[in-house]
Amino acid sequence: MSAESLLALGNMDSELSELIKDAPPVKGLDSAEDLFKLREHLAAMKRSLSAANFTEQISYVEADREIPMRDGKSIAIRIHSPKSRQEDGHPGLVLYHGGGFALGSLDNEVALCRKWTDLGGIAVNVDYRLAPENPFPVPGNDAYDALTATHLEELGINPEKGFIVGGVSAGANLAIVASHLYRDNGISPPLTGQYLSVPTICDPEGLPSKYKNVYLSREQNKDSLILNQTSIDLFEGWSVWIDIYALTKLLAGLYKPDPRSPLRSPLLFPSHKDLPPAYFQVCGADPLRDEGLIYEKVLREDYGIKTRLDIFPGLPHGFWTWFPRAEFSKKFQDKTREGLKWLLEQSG
Question: What's the rounded Cα separation, in Å, for the pair 290 and 158?
Fold first, then answer.
């Protein structure tokens, strides 16, 4: 994709433009300097998303449990299962929520997990530990440990029908890291797919120079709605000086990753060979846009891995949570369903 085509993806969607024209300013992920207030704000948005996708007919059951981690601590997972169980098992999805490695909970991706149960699957929703209480690499360790600690048969998952790892935003980053480690350690049964929604793939500091001519979205969308450079620096950076409205402000980074480690920048793993098919969702007005596009192309062209890519031009990171009843969000939900079905088809 040419630079001109990439930049055109950032032009605001016409429906979104109308929605925000006379509305109060959109409260994004930099809207509160108090982390706990920001966590509450995101939780409220996610509850609204679940409500917007609620149906009267309940076709699923949900149960929470604890699983052990490598350091002796435990984390929670939530099992989302269809009410109607099949004797030969169900496809499985291990899912990591978004939130910049510092926000989010089991309630984040409830709507997505319930969508998976509608397709006949069982979802394992992982409540990995968050920064700053648990900085890099703890969330990634938890993600991998949860993937390998999932007792498939006990939960009713039949990996031959599908065994997919996935995530949203920071959660997609954790899914990519976990899929590489799972491959490298020769774990069985093999993964059959990856669901990668608005993923962060590589810290700019670690980006190989050969990709810099198509890495335009961080600059183009640095002041975008919902996720912008301010919030990215808050979540991830070491203490950094940035200019906001002509004022200099010091933000202390929460996740504190090593930007050149594949555990933060999975694009930098030495090889992406033998990874399972991947379904990507990328937003045109997202600072992370070009990371997803670069990685999708690497998998498809350099490694011959099957991919499916949906781009949502002119829309910001995670728009479906902030505008759940907009037509473009309804289209997103339809595309998500189609993408998950495509992943199941690859499992056969």
Answer: 35
Q: Torsion-angle region of residue 286: left (phi > 0), alpha (psi -120 to 50) or beta?
A: beta
CB 300 within 8 A of CB 208: no
Catalytic residues: 169, 286, 317
Which single residue is written with the structure tokens 């360790």?
141
Q: Which amino acid type is present at position 318?
A: G
How is the chain split among helix, strand and coil, in percent rounded to 5?
Answer: 40, 20, 40
- Between vectors from CA 213 to CA 209 and to CA 218, what angle results, nearest 5°? 95
- DSSP character string of 174-197: HHHHHHHHHHHTT-SSPP-EEEEE
| Parallel/antiparallel/unpaired status of strands 122-127 and 74-82 | antiparallel
pLDDT above 70 as % of the chain:
87
Residues 255-275: tens digit of each pLDDT = 899 999 999 999 999 999 999
How far is it, in rounded angstroms, from Cα 84 to Cα 95? Answer: 21
pLDDT tens column, 288-321: 999 999 999 999 999 999 999 999 999 999 999 9
DSSP string, 213-225: GG--HHHHTTT-S
